[in-house]
Write a structure and sequence with these properties.
mainly alpha; two-stranded antiparallel sheet; 11 helices; 2 strands; 66% helix; 3% strand; elongated; transcription; GntR_C; transcription regulation; DNA-binding
Length: 237
């Protein structure tokens, strides 16, 4: 029996579009940290030269990555890295300045589960790093140094997620970095915000050192609950 020459399953294998290859190259540079968030990527002529592709191919790739939230095209200025991954870009785009309550609803589950797992899995090196982050958090709050405070606070919470030993959970948590920073920047200047509150921080670290998953989960949840109560009482929520 002769095969049907019109069978679509036997159509010639086609080489992937060049724009897909360019997308992968740009994505790889961003993921590796060579092009960090906030940096401007090489201009269009340089990308054309280095990748040896046409202008239309570069524009198509940049447009696709801008749509996913990975890049931001600023007319007359250049193209900037907006997020480290498409997931991070999507989270930032979907959050889009929404109220802090939505972010807290997501964190409520992630923080508590990360804490419970970290209580069982974190090693001494991870716990010492968390303690250092809390020392920096307190010192920067007292010095009213926002950049240092948000970095230390993030290092602590992301560190707990890393210490969970669950790579997927840690990656999901890290993609909250942009929205969390935006929310905390607004909270910083709001009356009544307490950036050195030990609940869910020093108290959580104590539970982690005691290897108590239930208490660690409670402390992480208490931090989110307290933040939610403050947000609602501040008139922001």
């Amino acid at each position: 029996m002769t095969a049907d020459p019109a069978d679509p399953a036997l159509e010639p294998v086609r080489r992937p579009a060049l724009s897909d290859e360019v997308i992968e190259r740009i994505r790889a540079r961003i993921a590796s940290g060579d092009w960090p968030v906030g940096s401007r990527i090489p201009p269009e002529p340089e990308l054309m030269r280095r990748l040896q592709v046409a202008r239309g191919t570069v524009r198509e790739a940049v447009r696709a990555l801008a749509h996913t939230g990975l890049l931001e095209v600023r007319r007359g200025d250049g193209t900037y890295v907006k997020a480290k991954s498409e997931l991070s870009g999507a989270v930032t785009r979907l959050y889009g300045g929404s109220d802090l309550g939505q972010l807290l609803e997501v964190r409520e589950g992630l923080d508590a589960q990360a804490a419970r797992l970290a209580a069982a899995r974190a090693d001494d090196t991870a716990l010492d790093a968390l303690a250092d982050a809390l020392r920096r958090r307190t010192a920067s709050w007292e010095a009213r140094d926002f950049d240092a405070w948000i970095a230390a606070d993030w290092d602590f919470h992301a560190g707990v997620a890393d210490a969970s030993g669950n790579a997927l959970l840690a990656e999901l948590y890290r993609n909250l970095a942009g929205p969390l920073r935006a929310a905390m920047a607004e909270a910083w200047s709001t009356s009544g915000f307490q950036g050195a509150d030990p609940v869910g921080h020093e108290t959580l670290l104590a539970a982690l050192r005691d290897r108590d998953p239930a208490e660690a989960g409670r402390q992480a949840a208490a931090n989110v609950s307290d933040t939610r109560a403050w947000d609602e009482g501040s008139g922001r929520g």
